[in-house]
Amino acid sequence: MSLTDGVKCDNCARHCPTGAIQMIVAEPEKETSPQIPAINTERCIGCGACENLCPARPFSAIYVEGHERHRII
């Protein structure tokens, strides 16, 4: 469940090509706390697939800045 609109989802974690995303509990002390994406920066390749697949609107629950080498054309 993303923090932006309450939609229960794990699209980003399921579709990450490198398995860099894990869903974690946002506030472990609260029983009804939503899960949010946590990114392993060592595994993330900055492709942005997770951000594009996120159904949360108007803002994605996950944001990828990307790597410099992916921005050069």
TrEMBL record:
Domain of life: Bacteria
GO terms assigned for molecular function: iron-sulfur cluster binding; metal ion binding
4Fe-4S ferredoxin-type domain sequence ranges: 35-67
Transmembrane annotation, as ranges: none
Keywords: Iron, Iron-sulfur, Metal-binding
Pfam entry (one): Fer4_7
Entry protein name: 4Fe-4S binding domain protein
Species annotation: Bacteroides fragilis str. 3783N1-6
